[in-house]
Amino acid sequence: MAGAQIEVKYFNTFLLKKVSTTGNVAQGKIIYNGSFGVPGEALLGGIQGGYPVLLSQNNVNSWVIEESRIRGGYNNTSVDFGAKAYLIENEPSGVRRFNTLIYSGIFNSKTGINKTNVFSVGTDITKSADPANGSIQKLYAEDTNLNVFQELKVSRALIDKDAIYSAEGGGTVTASNLVIGVIQPILGKYGISQNPESFAIYGNRKYFSDKNNNAILRLSGGSIEEISSLGMKDFFRDNINRVNTAQGLGKILGAYDIYTSEYVSSLQFNRPIPSSEADSFATLSFDERAKGWTSFFSYKPDQIFSLRNNFYSVKTSDLGVSELWRHNSTQVNRGSFYGENHRTSITFVLNPMPTNSKTFKTIGYQGSNGWEVNSMVSDSTGTVYNNNNSFSVLSLDSISQIKSYTEGEYVVTEGSGNSLSASSLTTVSLDINSVNGIIRVGDSVSGVGVTGGTIVVSYDAGNGDLVVNLLFNNLLANTLLSFTGAVTRVEYNTVFGNNIPGLPRYYAGFNLKENKYVSNVTNNSLASNGEVVFGDSVGGIKGYYSTVTMSTELTTDLGGEKTLFSVESFYDVNNGY
Fold this sequence. Notes:
With 577 residues, the protein is mainly β. The chain contains two helices and 46 strands. The chain starts with 13 loop residues before the first strand and ends with a strand.
């Protein structure tokens, strides 16, 4: 190598270290025992750190000079690593003991003892559960007991005490110096599967899911109860089984809503391309007071938890930012989740006199204004063979949508005008000096030479040009045309300039009678095999029972409270068929 003259003034020893010049990692930086970043002030290749280096044109020939004695003095103490304690392990590779608990030394803030980083192999610091029950997924300390949740089993471990069993099988708990005593299984072949995120606690009640049994469970008083079987067994059997797919694992989030005193569970399915956002999750709540599942919710959280009498959720926005949302707030609209308004709906069955065929003619409810009927369907008559098309169909009755009291309100408008010329087309001009009242798109048109069913397609009030949907039948000049239409409540301000038109009010949906909202039921079903009178020619729907779905609309008192106390229907019993 190229020569470098070093003058040694004292009888000291020196350590020569090369500079790294290869590769892309800190090129030109000193290597010190295989690592980079030796303290120093030298700036090597733009990188701070290292000892002074004797540079040359060829970096390969650059060397580091380091003193090995304190202050470089003659016979001064030499710097070294000193004595090192070490232990040779025969099997140094790590082992994952999925069914085992381990604990460290103690921590005492009063005496200043902190041994939380001490794991002495010389003492018994582990406690193992039955490996046949899978891995330990969740631990929860409760008083002097430790609840251990494995995939297939829930157990209880004693803390700072142990159990002594007699020959007869009886047990006595006694004080012990053991940190974790005997592990006692809780009755029932239930576990938490691989969903520790479903765990929630309130008081002495612990809630969690068990995907292996398609169940939601409650641990209380040393026993486990399957709360998913309280009216919702089929739902959870079908939907918990959908959480995990071939594409990956889904989630079952769980938390206790301390504000409403309900356990909230959110099943989130791992579906790569769900048909809709609503099809990718199911969030619902369990109420201990009702002993059942009371409501579904229209939100899909990333995390849920309670804090200081409030219930919160975390949701990732479209921009990828995690946002914190407080639920049950009176500062936003009811049914509003993550800035979006959602309708509230309820589905129920009308089934009086179950063994009789009935015709349901009306529907009414007691509650707040703002409810509408989205669907009302009778029970199916079963499979019927269609002789015309040679295939089987299901016959049932259904109705048209019943609007709420507000949305169904309307007034009738009238208008008139004389034609300026004869016409057999779909266009004609009106004498604007003869026009009276209101003429709007969709109005019915009547008069001599007007075909039945004619409605207004467009009308220009400036020049009187009128376009209708059907041809005029030799309409003569100076013929009086009459126009009749309806203006709904939501259009009042646009048409009349105010929300209180001086016209009689009519209702196409629910009407208010004696503090009750009632409506006739209008059939809109298609003709079934052998049926002569059907559809809107029939009043009501026929069946043994009827399934009804009602929901709130987004017009009446948006975001306000809407109550629903009871629903009823007037019906006739059919004569044996």
